[in-house]
Description:
The structure holds two protein chains of two kinds.
Chain A: E1 8-9, H1 45-48, H2 50-80, H3 88-118, E2 126-127, H4 136-153, H5 159-171, H6 173-178, E3 202-204, E4 221-226, H7 236-243, E5 245-249, E6 269-273, E7 285-286, E8 292-294, E9 301-303, E10 309-312, E11 324-326, E12 332-334
Antiparallel strand pairs in A: 1-2, 3-4, 4-5, 5-6, 7-8, 8-9, 9-10, 11-12
Chain B: H1 2-10, H2 17-35, H3 49-62, H4 64-67, H5 84-93, H6 115-128, H7 137-140, H8 146-156, H9 158-161, E1 168-169, E2 175-176, H10 184-193, H11 208-223, H12 237-260
Helix pairs in contact in B: 3-6, 5-6, 5-10, 8-11, 10-11
Amino acid sequence: MSEQSKEVATTNHSSEAEHVYDGGLNVVHQDAVKDPGIEPHRVRMTDKSPKHEKNAVRQVVALFTLSMLGSAFALYAYFAFPINEDLTTVRNNTLFLGVGITLGLLGIGIGAVHWAKTLMPDNEVAEDRHAIRSPEDKRAAAIEVINLANQESGFSRRKLIRRTLYGALALFPLPGIIIFGDLGPNPGDKLRHTAWKQGTRLARDPYGTPIKASEITEGSVFHVIPEGLNPEQEDYLEQKSKAAVLLVRVDPKNLIESDEKKDWSYQGIVAYSKICTHVGCPVALYEQTTHHLLCPCHQSTFDLVDGCKVIFGPASRPLPQLPIYVDEEGYLRAQSDFHEPVGPSFWDRSAKA
Amino acid sequence: MLKNKLNGLRRSPKGLVVILFAGLLVVGTGYTAVNAAVNTSPQAASHSAAQINYGKKLFLSNCASCHGKNAEGTANGPTLIGVGEASVDFQVSTGRMPGASSGPQMQVKPVQFTNDEIAAMAAFVGSLATGPAIPGAEYTSGNGDIQKGGELFRVNCAMCHNAAGKGGALTEGKYAPELMHSSAKTIAEAMILGPQNMPVFNDANITPQEKNDIITYLQYLQTHSSAGGDELGGLGPVTEGLLAWLGLLGLIIAITIWLGAKSN
């Protein structure tokens, strides 16, 4: 280390000082911008005036004292603001304990930095990098160590050991790679079907009570799940998130229905999937007079009386309609599952239906 | 159909208001019986003829310019026949009516009438045809199940009114108002009526008891501050993100600059 030039430039290092580059990989620029060197030293107020120095001392002492007070307050707060059943006690406990600990730590930190900046010596110092290439004798010594290790371990001599080690090293990552196979299984047709089946009764979210057509007055909105969806079942939330439906009654005169979907509604009662075809947020902001269904995430707007077609926003397809009918008891039932996958597009969903 | 019938009756001489009222009461009661299971229990309100007359006077001087002299509606305002007392009470007691200007939706303003005047106008409009009555204590007592009310609120109301009841934007300048200052009666009326663009939540969908649960939940939100301290408007990631990115990150940058700066 001794022969490494360690140039230390101290205070008032003049800008025209020549830097000595000592070879190695340093690129010596002949025509580069001239190294301005270290900027001239500026004397601090605390060095010039004893009054300022005294002030700075007081400030540092005050900060450390504040830290002590903060820590003491944190100890006090822990006992003075205990947490009980009232939730607001959590707030007070967290707040005052936090304020105390913050003051305790910030007081030390800010005090130490202020101390260093105002009172400790502020001589500018430059230390040049040493050459990247090691000196020859160090290099020779390193090679000697490696050769000795090779000789003593017999790594070159004992071929069988060496080759089995290579084999072991080649094989050990394979199990780690193969378990990526468990990132599946592929969803299969799960994205194409929901819990709705032919004859499933429409039920109220969240209590699952069936709905009669006569209960739905004009302008009403019902949030619907398929009857029989059991909160105890393992995939309850997955099923619910696919099958959620919005049930609305509008004036049948206003309904615009294609011929093939003519019998999908009942006396102005229509049921649409609540899952946005854009990225799958629940679309449930229904405006009674405009018949607009608004998605709160990206403002896709669907016209409920016109097949829920997109009239604004990034959604690319209408919301899927659930075909419904009324049984002899007056309950609403699904004619079938949705005729297309609900929710956003996915890799092999055809763009049309 | 019923409306046509009522429109016919309405054209009878004005001196027969009381007789008209009696006739409507009969029709209304029949209607009530038919729709009892579905409608929000419209009650045949018992108001004195004097009160109804007073209400009519107020109506003619304050409402008729938009809603028509006989509440039949004009190009500027819908008919009020059959909207019920609850509707008048909701619109006038929140200051939405009389409307000051047309716009995407009627806004909450300082209330223009005394309680007696509102009751009289409600009685007059209620006398025109049966409609939803002002909800009673079974809706508004506020002693329901908070937890159940919260669940129902999140399923039926939170998408527009925000999970914390702070309101939210709708399309084309319309919005769902915040509910932090709404009275129990106003909230119950809104659910029953579906005013402006709000859908109807009738008693078959959300029972009076469940409406009371929702109101109990909202009253809890109205009277209890957030356990987590300042809610920053309760608007979720927008205001919270703004504070974190601009406020806290700014503070960290300021400290970093101070650390690297020379003392003078």
